[in-house]
Design goal:
The chain is of the alpha+beta class. The protein is built from 25 helices and 34 strands. It is globular and about 80 Å long.
């Protein structure tokens, strides 16, 4: 493929898949390097990223600091080889209210010399049978004569043939309410819609305590669901201890709620509210598309955390429309996305780009500015919570939790059902609950859509739990660390769903470390000294701890590791780089198995992995056990083929596939090559497993032998026709699937469900005959053991704990909160790249500070959906708000070298929030139950 864009080679053609008659192809993002000033320098610098024992810098560092075009937002048509040089521009018009009928759209204010050459409306879509994928719902564009579904509802897409026209028209209409002609006032559309989701998690431990079989649990008895009346959940089931699952659940829930009146119990009964937040990723959303009519191809450049789903759904959108009849190929280019935080996970934005591409006469670019991103981008769900946390007054142990949570999900469902579930299952945090009745439901609202923003519901629910623990410690007259130790979850105990989490619970160890820190031990003296020196300020210290689940319950990572005859290592993974350093960590972790870091790392690869010939058939979350059992007999079936880059999945889940691909290269290539070098022949001899070996400075050192350079091993492996490229796919439903494979007539078991290989340049004709059209041999799967579908009821089993101490000063004249210092502890298992974890800790602190003290979007008609919000009125925390000179941390070492790496990204922000709220209380003696706590709130309280 000479250009990577227009003329597909045979190898390119076989990487396609066909969806609804449209061949979908995943292509690399290539730009014209002549237009990148620093390109000639970057290649030399980039080659040094893996020169030492650890990464010299991030794999993507040189491109970023030299200003190269790597983000999807950076691209224009002229930057992409093979595309026409002429660039067109699209503008999406969105309404600014949702309580009236839209009678007409008046664009007469656009100057004559700036008129769009085409306007796409709801009628345009209807005429050509264009609609959104089912995931996003209906009404892609608002039809005239209808009430908008939500503020920011898209009405039209304007197409312009020059930037000057686009800019002039945009300046005229972007903030003009006059373009909308409104009719009568109507009720909000969302008021007449049923909830997006409702979950209820009920558990009653067994009579013999936490070690005994539960009397009732979600895992054991299954999920239960309500009826709906007046668009609210109602539980009409009878209360019956011996009835069906729902009746039994109602019995144990009823008993717990009755027992809250027990005079021997202390019940912390509180209401909490948390706010809507703008993700504020580095790059607002953008799209480039070109319909190449000459070759019947549609090229799109997307910025998405979930390109796998886009490939399938976009093909369906095109195939179902008469406009798609002539389109034979959809070529999807996935560059760096410029930050995600969940806001680019299953975003609706690229689908408006596709529609614009079908009508544009040249390559079309649509890019949100910050106003538009505020108005239309995914937001964090608001939570309204009413919690009752009960303690035995004598033992100080938690006796039960009754929690009721109501979320607002915005105008489209997106991931509201999943966020609601995770928020409900997360409220337990680090504490063992012998009994619980947790209900959470999410209703549609006329505000911008809420989705999988960082924290995913856990930030809201766990923050409230920590605030209750802090208040309970005071009410019980017990040290706050001691109360936490008494109630800390122990290894082997069950979570609120009745499942036993994976790994060891190290919460008490983390609590003990924090309790000994000088921020805590010296807090009383520091308060006296600080307030004496600063008479108008009050000093306070707060602590918070949390443990965040990671994963979705249907993780399906794919990875490949290949070695070249020259000794280079090439890694490909399905995850996307969104600023977290996934690219760097995936290129680094293979050092354990191959002695060297990768020379090349390629992200967001999807169609390349079709070489494994995998098929799927049903949702991994809803399929029956019978269906899974039946399909498991098919040697290339898997519960799900791809996964989005979300849920903190890269460190553990993506790394699993990458590591095992590297281990297979070691086992089936490098070790046999080493043995052949030692024996001075080309015979493949299986190494004695008792022989010790290790990697030193990029060379393999076998006991009693001279070191063998990696380059020599790679050359020998290729010459012998050994395995030189391995593709691996895995599936995890809260535990890994395992399978038996036939390697050269020998049965071997791996925690993978698909493997494909290529052989070196010395491969025999017989080996090459085993290749499929993609040039890989699929290793025969003899049998597979997938986790039971009932594990879906576990909801979560992987956790990462994090704790934070903060010391603050509150200005009693202004109400401002100054962060004097922080210390964070995290237990991430084995760390791939320490600096990346540290970066997550620093970024997480900032996001926690923003959520607790600054960031807020109204969830009413004055909010972001008006299109008038930007950073001039939305406060994000700056460096000065974070105590940057006193941001300290402790990365707890793993218990053993074999410990897994854990997901980190989301948990690092959670304990910051309750720690700050408690510190404010210790400074002012005022408790707050809403977020954010602003200077105005503080001044009013004191």
């Amino acid at each position: 493929m000479s250009t990577g864009q227009t003329d597909l080679s045979r190898r390119g053609f076989i990487k396609k898949c066909v969806i609804g008659g449209v061949a979908v192809y995943s292509a690399p993002m290539i730009f014209d390097k002549k237009k990148a000033f620093a390109a000639s320098v970057s290649e030399k610098l980039k080659a040094k990223w893996n020169a030492g024992a650890k990464p010299s810098y991030r794999y993507d560092a040189i491109e970023k600091v030299t200003g190269q075009k790597i983000y999807g937002r950076d691209y224009r048509a002229q930057d992409i080889p093979g595309w026409p040089q002429k660039q067109h521009y699209g503008y999406v018009i969105r309404v600014n209210q949702a309580d009236k009928i839209l009678v007409d759209l008046d664009l007469s204010s656009i100057p004559e010399d700036a008129k769009p050459y085409f306007t796409i409306t709801a009628q345009t879509l209807k005429d050509n049978q264009l609609k959104l994928p089912d995931f996003y719902g209906e009404n892609m564009l608002l039809e005239l004569g209808k009430t908008p579904d939500y503020q920011g509802h898209e009405v039209a897409i304007l197409l312009f043939d020059s930037f000057i026209k686009f800019k002039k028209a945009k300046a005229q209409i972007e903030f003009s309410s006059a373009i909308f002609k409104w009719g009568e006032t109507t009720p909000l559309v969302t008021l007449n819609q049923d909830p997006y989701a409702c979950w209820r998690i009920i558990r009653q431990e067994g009579d013999a305590g936490s070690a005994s079989e539960d009397r009732y649990s979600t895992l054991h008895d299954g999920l239960i669901f309500p009826d709906y009346k007046d668009h609210k959940p109602v539980w009409n089931a009878s209360i019956n201890q011996t009835g069906n699952a729902t009746e039994k659940a109602m019995f144990y829930a009823s008993e717990l709620r009755k027992d809250l009146a027990n005079p021997d119990w202390l019940v912390i009964d509180k209401k909490f509210t948390t706010q809507s937040i703008e993700p504020m990723m580095l790059e607002p959303e953008a799209f480039n598309g070109w319909l190449d009519k000459k070759n019947d191809r549609l090229h799109v450049v997307i910025c998405s955390q979930s390109p796998q789903d886009f490939y399938a759904q976009a093909g369906e959108v095109i195939a179902k429309s008469p406009l798609g009849v002539s389109i034979k190929e959809l070529i999807v280019h996935t560059p760096y996305i410029g930050g995600g935080f969940g806001a680019k996970d299953h975003t609706i934005f690229p689908y408006y780009g596709i529609i614009a591409s079908l009508y544009s006469t040249n390559p079309i670019r649509i890019a949100n500015d910050r106003f538009q991103q505020f108005q239309s981008g995914l937001k964090r769900h608001t939570f309204n919570m009413n919690h009752k946390l009960a303690f035995d007054k004598k033992t100080k142990k938690i006796t039960g939790l009754v929690a009721d949570m109501v979320l607002a999900g915005g105008g489209r469902k997106n991931y509201s059902d999943s966020v609601t579930m995770v928020g409900a299952s997360a409220i337990q945090s680090i504490y063992y609950l012998p009994r619980n009745d947790i209900q959470a439901w999410c209703h549609p609202s006329a505000t911008p859509h809420a989705g999988s923003m960082r924290g995913y519901g856990t930030l809201q629910s766990m923050g409230a739990m920590e605030m209750m623990i802090n208040e309970a410690a005071e009410a019980l007259d017990i040290d706050t660390f001691e109360l936490r130790r008494i109630n800390a979850f122990q290894t082997g105990q069950k979570n609120t769903q009745g499942a036993i989490p994976n790994g060891s619970a190290r919460y008490i160890e983390m609590l003990n470390l924090a309790e000994k820190h000088e921020i805590w031990t010296k807090r009383k003296q520091n308060k006296l000294d600080y307030e004496k020196a600063h008479p108008t300020k009050k000093y306070g210290v707060g602590f918070g701890i949390a443990t965040k689940d990671y994963g979705t319950g249907a993780e399906a990572p794919s990875a490949s590791v290949a070695i070249t005859p020259e000794g280079k290592i090439i890694v490909q993974v399905c995850s996307i780089e969104m600023g977290t350093g996934t690219e760097t960590s995936q290129g680094t972790l293979i050092t354990k198995y191959l002695g060297n870091m990768a020379d090349e790392v390629h992200m967001a690869k999807i169609k390349e992995f079709e070489a494994m010939e995998l098929i799927e058939s049903d949702s991994p979350y809803t399929m029956s056990q019978a269906h899974q059992d039946e399909m498991s007999n098919k040697p290339t079936w898997t519960p799900t083929i791809g996964m989005a880059s979300s849920a903190s999945q890269s460190a553990f889940f993506q790394s699993h596939a990458t590591a095992h691909a590297a281990k297979l290269i070691l086992q089936h290539s490098l070790l046999p090559a080493a043995q052949a070098i030692i024996n001075k022949n080309d015979s493949v001899v299986k190494m004695n497993p008792a022989i010790k070996y290790k990697w030193e400075l990029g060379a393999l050192v076998i006991e009693g032998q001279q070191p063998i350079a990696f380059e020599l091993l790679a050359k020998k492996a290729h010459a012998m026709g050994l395995v030189t490229s391995v593709m691996a796919h895995a599936f995890n439903r809260w535990e890994w699937a395992t399978a038996d494979f036939d390697f050269n007539g020998e049965k071997q078991n791996y925690p993978l469900d698909a493997i494909a290989v290529q052989y070196g340049i010395g491969a025999t004709a017989e080996q090459k005959q085993q290749y499929n059209a993609a040039g890989y041999q699929v290793i025969k799967r003899l049998s597979v053991d997938y986790p039971k579908t009932s594990m879906n009821n576990a909801m979560v089993t992987y956790y990462t704990p994090c704790a934070t101490l903060v010391e603050i000063a509150v200005d009693t004249k202004l109400g401002n909160v100054e962060i004097l210092g922080t210390h964070t502890w995290i237990e991430p298992g084995n760390v791939h790249v320490k600096e990346l974890v540290e970066g997550q800790l620093e970024g997480g602190l900032t996001m926690g500070v923003g959520h607790a003290l600054y960031e807020h979007l109204p969830d009413d008609e004055t909010g972001a959906g008006t299109g008038t919000w930007n950073l001039d009125r939305y406060q994000v925390p700056f460096a000065k708000h974070n105590g940057v000179w006193n941001m300290k941390h402790t990365i707890m070492p793993p218990l053993s070298d074999s410990d897994d790496s854990k997901g980190v990204a989301e948990v690092v922000m959670i304990p910051v929030v309750p720690a700050l709220i408690e510190a404010i209380y210790q400074a002012t003696n005022k408790r707050f139950y809403h977020l954010p706590v602003t200077p105005q709130d503080i001044m009013k309280a004191i």
